[in-house]
Amino acid sequence: TIQITMTTESPSLRIDQIKALIHQYNHEYYVLDNPTVPDAEYDRLMRELIELEAQHPDLKTLDSPSQKVGGEALKAFEQVTHQIPMLSLDNVFSEQEWQAFVKRIQDRLGSQASISFCAEPKLDGLAVSLRYEDGVLVQAATRGDGTTGENITDNIRTIKSIPLKLYGEQYPGVLEVRGEVFMPKASFDALNAKAAKAGDKQFANPRNAAAGSLRQLDSKITAKRNLAFYAYSVGYVGASDSNEVGEEWLAQSHFARLVQLKELGLPMCPEVVLLMTEEGCDEFYQDILAKRDQLPYEIDGTVLKVDDIALQEQLGFVARAPRWATAYKFPAQEELTILEDVDFQV
Ligand code: NAD
User: Fold this and answer.
1) Where are the CATH 1.10.287.610 domain residues in the chain?
2) Index of the ligand 1 atom closest to the CA of residue 35
3) pTM above 0.80, yes or no
4) What's the complex ipTM?
5) Is 300 annotated in some ligand binding site?
6) Ligand 1-lining residues (CB < 6 angstroms)
């Protein structure tokens, strides 16, 4: 792992150096599904880049990794252009940063009133967009670079928890559902045990295993991987030629939307809750952190989203993420392990 923080170095050189490293790490992570550094190391570099760019705005370029979402879509798949871009999330790593996030939102809204948040675990898989037309699953795509993703419809059809046809009678003509495909811990352990036995390469973590399994050219392989799915938002919603129900179908609360999706058969993570004020968010984070090891799937933090859709619209987006949501991330497990070791020796 390369960790250089030289004060004598010019900011421009350091920025170039970080960009080159992040470029390489993105390729390994998003394209090859094979990271070579821990996420914490990647996150540190990204933070340093964002800070340097904030101090030297003239050095911030449009192609900087701080301005972009994810990686490129693999050319082996048909490309899908997202009608509404699939963004990433900003992140905070401490209670102070979380409070600063809330304060920024309140300042922007010009109100000190408390805000309701939809609080969700941050699932460690990969984002997909599912398109239902007249209630039938017609297309599924990965996030890719946020604008263009990979057409993975055949592979998505093998995931048992994703309905091929929506339940119920009432749904919009066109409904794009967004959510996370992930590999439950038990499936991941079984897959790696099998790979070890066969002398094959093992996956670094369930996220990479999920990404590698979903981006298979042969969907028979995907079918054997026991992937699962939770919905966490909607993309494009509109009427179709034969169904005039459109956007008006949607609730004006993010949490209520997830419940609407659940009623159509799209699984919602059971840990998701609606918090009436920002006060509860830190407690939610602590609760989920305490539960982490017992959950049957991997998570790497919590996600907190302003629940009121009108407020979300008022807050809008920056280059790569919405202003109305943030990932409140857990301390990296790699770091936790090291800390525990140190404690032991003392
Ligand atoms: P991210 O994973 O930090 O956050 C955005 C993603 O969170 C969304 O796209 C979605 O897939 C997911 N998500 C999970 N639960 C969600 C929920 N409830 N609501 C909404 N979204 C939810 O961002 P990213 O852009 O996908 O990846 C960046 C992160 O990936 C980095 O912070 C780093 O940890 C890791 N990474 C690591 C390497 C490496 O080399 N180790 C390289 C690139 C990225």
Assistant:
1) 11-67
2) 40
3) yes
4) 0.96
5) no
6) 25-26, 28-29, 35, 37, 39, 42-43, 69-70, 88-89, 91, 120, 122-123, 126-127, 143, 180, 232, 303, 327
Q: For atom 27 of ligand 1, which residue has the closest CA? A: 70
Per CATH, domain 79-339 is 3.40.50.720:
no
Closest Cα partner for 320 from 116, 4, 22? 22
**Which residues have CB under 8 Å from 197's CB, separation 6+?**
none
The per-residue pLDDT for range 314-342, each reduced to its tens digit, is 999 998 999 999 999 998 766 544 433 33
Q: Which of 83, 269, 262 is nearest to 171 (CA)?
A: 262
The class (CATH top level) of 11-67 is mainly alpha
Query: In this structure, what token pair is assigned to residue 74?
Result: 């693999």
CA separation for the pair 278, 78 (Å, rounded): 42
Q: What residues does CATH 3.30.470.30 cover in the chain? A: 79-339
320 annotated to a ligand binding site: no
